[in-house]
Amino acid sequence: MMETLFYPEGHRLNAPENLAAISSPAALSEAQRAGRILESRALMCDGAHNLLVDLNGMRGLIPREEGALGIREGTVRDIAILSRVNRPVSFIVQDFIREEDGRITALLSRRAAQELCQREYIDKLCPGDVVPARVTHLEPFGVFADIGCGIPALLPIDSISVSRIGHPRERFLPGMDIRAVVKGRDRGRINLSHKELLGTWAENARRFQAGETVGGIIRSIESYGVFVELAPNLAGLAESKENIFPGQQASVFIKSVLPQRMKVKLIIIETFDSEPRRPRPPEYFFTGEHMEEFLYSPPESEKIIRTVF
């Protein structure tokens, strides 16, 4: 993957070079000449859906049609603008105008920043590229994440982790910074995956030993046993037990770890209900910038689980 100069919104907000560029009209003019992408916080959205932006005392204005890619064409709803209030926005300075009261207003374009990001970065991404992303909002079917200048990508729920979950909020919070791998494109939008970065079966199983009693989460109850999540990419199978329910916390005894069968056998000691835990930032086993494939299965296993990008 190429070295990127494009990041999710908020990444450059407090960077020294960004703060310097919005510190004065002269610095903003220089950034305009260079075509630099800057960031600041949107203060409000007026009745015409223009965004007002804080520029260190100077007024910045992002006209509605410059608020996001697709607004002008009608393919993106205005919620893409309204939802940026009190949040960082990326923009390119386009002009300066003098208001009737003598104040100078900088005309800004978030759309132009997104067009540049799309052309120079997102259009060049390939399957297997690992990118930084920032979670913007959660839906039952998956996660929308900003992969550059506010441009969204979709991370489906079944690609978040090997261990299945009921809702993305079990893993993520809006505003959380994550890494994700490019899986492909659907009608121009990048589709992401995440589970390939969370470690193989062997990498996760290595943390657990037979004879230990550890914590887990009841994920599903089947006729042949109960699946208990030990880690986002590792679940074990326990014998059935009465009065247990998906989503409960559990303490489980590890009977055996069987790489050949890719199984962790468990005994449920106790289950209990608790308040939902605040998701913690993911722990990544893969820290590179590109992967050609991901082999989840251990070498000893006859069953092959593989993702090829």
Automatic annotation (TrEMBL):
Example of a GO cellular component annotation carried by this entry: ribonucleoprotein complex
The family this protein is said to belong to: Belongs to the bacterial ribosomal protein bS1 family.
Protein name as annotated: 30S ribosomal protein S1
PROSITE patterns from the UniProt entry: S1 (PS50126)
SMART domains: S1
Residue intervals of the S1 motif domain: 128-195, 211-242
InterPro entries named among the record's database cross-references: NA-bd_OB-fold (IPR012340), Ribos_protein_bS1-like (IPR050437), S1_domain (IPR003029)
Top-rank lineage group of the source organism: Bacteria
Single Gene Ontology MF annotation: structural constituent of ribosome
Keywords: Ribonucleoprotein, Ribosomal protein
Cross-referenced Pfam families: S1
Any single GO BP term: translation
